[in-house]
Amino acid sequence: MIKQRLVLNFENILRAKIYFFLxxxxxxxxxxxxxxxxxxxxxxxxxxxSAVIYFIGINVILWPLQYLSAKTFAKTTSFDAxxxxxxxxILIHHNNKELIENKDWNWxxxxxINKNRIWLxxxxxRPFGISIPTNKLSEQDIDLFKQxxxx
Length: 151
Hints:
Elements: E1 2-7, H1 10-39, H2 47-76, E2 80-85, E3 90-94, E4 100-103, E5 108-113, E6 117-122, E7 128-133, H3 139-149
Antiparallel strand pairs: 1-2, 2-3, 3-4, 5-6, 6-7
Helix pairs in contact: 1-2
């Protein structure tokens, strides 16, 4: 059994937003700006240079929006819970209200395991990510997540 305290605060929300942006969205923006660079190059510049300028310009706009979005979401959300992961289920013991939720592993849409963190993507409309540092987990704990990620 794995027991972790999960708190939804600005730092965790911003980390999840950056993770999802780099994992999914950045490729869409890169392709879009490449196409834009070839279809509508900046006067006197080659299409690749135009695409790079467009890409930098879009990122100059998007990164502050990610920051502001995380700040706003952190102010409106109060999630503080001890979460227990075991072979059969996931138990969520809310610390800020008298509520215990019982979830099955279908609640987790995807599990990504890398060197520093385990990312759990929650199965809901708006993607929500939980990250657990691997240095807080034993090998058995990591093996449970690996086993669940293969299903």
